Write a sequence for this structure.
C-alpha cells in the first residue's frame, strides 16, 4: 500500500491517500500566530489498524515542524500519538 500525505490548505487539513484514493484526514485551524489546533483525525474504517492514522500524524507533524509552527492537539488520537512519540512533544504549544 502506497501512502501519501499532502497539505490541503483550502480545506484546512492534511489528507492521506492509499494508492491514490483519499482515505483519511487531519483537520487543523490557526488559533494564534504560528499555532495550529488539531481538532480531528479521521481514517476510513476499512484502513483502521493498518498504520494509516499514524502515518498521517507523522507526516503532518513533520510538515508542521518544517514550517516552524506549534500545535494544540485537541483530538484524542493526536494527543495519544504525541504522548507515545515524544519526539514531537516540542511541537506542543505551551500557552
Amino acid at each position: 500500500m502506497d501512502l501519501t500525505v499532502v497539505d490541503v490548505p483550502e480545506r484546512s487539513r492534511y489528507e492521506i491517500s492509499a494508492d491514490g484514493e483519499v482515505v483519511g484526514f487531519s483537520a487543523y485551524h490557526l488559533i494564534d500566530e504560528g499555532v495550529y489546533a488539531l481538532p480531528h483525525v479521521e481514517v476510513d474504517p476499512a484502513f483502521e489498524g493498518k498504520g494509516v492514522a499514524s502515518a498521517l500524524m507523522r507526516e503532518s507533524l513533520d510538515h508542521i515542524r518544517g514550517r516552524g509552527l506549534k500545535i494544540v492537539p485537541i483530538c484524542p488520537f493526536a494527543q495519544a500519538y504525541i504522548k507515545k512519540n515524544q519526539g514531537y512533544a516540542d511541537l506542543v504549544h505551551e500557552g
User: Anything to note?
Assistant: The beta strands are 3-8, 13-18, 21-32, 35-43, 70-73.
